[in-house]
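Q: My labmate handed me this sequence with no annotations at all. I'd like to see what the chain might look like in three dimensions before we decide whether it's worth expressing. Could you predict it?
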Amino acid sequence: MKILVVALVLALIVGVIGAWLVRQRAEAQASLPPPVAPLPAGAVREALAPYQDALEATRRPVLRISLEDFPEDAPTASKVGGRAWWPEGEAAPVGEGGAAMVLLAQVNFAEVPATPGYPDTGLLQFFIVPNDFYGASMDRDYTVEALTQQRNFRVVYWADPSAPGQSLDIPSFEDEFYTPHKPQQPRRMRFAADTETLSARDYRIDQMLGGNAWETLENWAKSKGYDDRSVVEVFEHLGGGGHKLGGYPDFTQQDPRKGGPLELLLQLDSDDRMMWGDVGVGGFYIDPADLARKDFSRVMYNWDCH
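A: Here is what I predict for the chain of 306 residues:
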């Protein structure tokens, strides 16, 4: 008899708790905001429609870069990593305090499709000191002026890589995470000509959209009953990522340029064999007038990550 009473009491308690939980769930569901409308096909195009003419006016050539394994290496090839070609009799590039540099990338313009504003021949090289900043000059200040100081990176152009030269040895360094790439595992560059419009993270996008780009698109999304995913999709559509020569840049944080003449020279993105911090992106920037003169002494080097 006692067992039966205990069982009935337990059943009553369970029933009361169950009813309370059902009521709580119903009240919680009633307080939820109405469901967000799914993003329909064509919404990104609709969001950008008022700015389409302005976007098209920014269209410019870009050379998409694909990277492939290059175990045989070649001193004058367009590549990421590997052994750099260097003229005989010239001292190898070094950073502050004589710190050794590794080749981040080099572009042989004889292998590149003809592109307005770029040299037709010559070898352009990008060297960095392996350190916490991947050689970038962001350890003292984060301004365009600071980022153009080639203290621990060097951008060098050689007009005639067929001249007598040598292959620089790849220096050893203490931590493999001091470079975004693996210098001992070169990858060859392949180029494909394309065009693109202003990217979502270029500082000029705010001016084009008449204010803060994210807030402008967020207000549009709210007016349509969409959530922030739609804003993310618009930003992804405007993109800017990937390995490329020229075009418009991508950033994970902010564009350090607030104006001025600097445009993207070379961008290297994170992939399965290259990692800029926490899935970031690196870029080199130049004044087009300097590029026309083949003067790479004032190139800005920047990278950021999530």
